[in-house]
Predict the 3D structure of the following.
Amino acid sequence: MAGKVVLTGIKPTGIPHIGNYFGAIRPALGLADNFEARYFIADYHALNSVQDSATMRDYTYQIAATWIACGLDPKKVLLYRQSDVPETFELSTFLMAFTAKGLMNRAHAYKDAFSKNLEKGVDQDHEINMGLFTYPVLMAADILLFDTDLVPVGRDQKQHIEIACDIAQRINHNYGAELLRVPQPVISSTLDLIPGLDGRKMSKSYGNTIPLWLSSKELRKLLMKITTNSQGVEEVKDPDTCNIFALFKLFSTEEQQAELAARYRVGGLGWGHAKQALFEVVDAHLAPMREKYDALIADKAALDAILDEGASRARVISAATMGRLRKAAGLGR
Ligand code: TRP
């Protein structure tokens, strides 16, 4: 439906990888064709863990360049840095007053950190900062500030969207007006299906990711490291239980898939051959985007200009939302 707003954020906490591409970027770009899209770099969320300035800057540029290299058109999609929109932090403080502490206690990122500390027998608050504890409030501010209808995210973020809905409804109810639009998650399940180098779900925390922007040579070398079983070349193999094949499927046509599956089933295809076939399709898919990425990342001033332009357009919307709320709440004059 036209007129609906879709919004999502990516944290600059690591090098963009294939999991980000299929799990977040591609689905979001698909939605951008049909809705008004607002995509941002969640640098204040990253600040909870990325506390070195050069790293923060690098990852932020990398995410911006990745969005654009993958097809985001900054003229059509609003692309901005979270930190360039100060109303985010004003709204976040506003939301705090309507957020039950118990709701934060139950948020899973905090709960996980908390239970790990208990397991380890260290202080229950060890290495937990208030940024982690109030993470869902900041995320709710990101979403509610921009009149968001749809939020494409991975399954792990669903609870955060529910918290945003909960807070928005409390505020609307309190002031007796639809001040904040209540959003809805769009859960992408692709990410669950993307195996990393070791066969577990691809995730930065497992250290098993395949970065998007390696050179051809580096990419091939990395793909050759994918974990396999010890079946010999001549043995017949099962594509349906194979990590290499699962990755191959993401990058290939049905015809290519049928062809490789047939080679698995007759025998004579060693794991090295399968990895080579995988490399060829991945490299063919990424090469044109890699060229764009390399050009974008080499020109930080141009990236800054795009992000600045995004921020000034974003602030028109964020100022309107915040003005509406301040008025409804009797804040200011
Ligand atoms: N928490 C999200 C993640 O870790 C990133 C994020 C921050 C986000 N703010 C958001 C996603 C707002 C969607 C909407 O992936």
In short: Residues 7-9, 11, 42, 45, 139, 142-143, 151, 153, 157 surround tryptophan (CB under 6 Å).
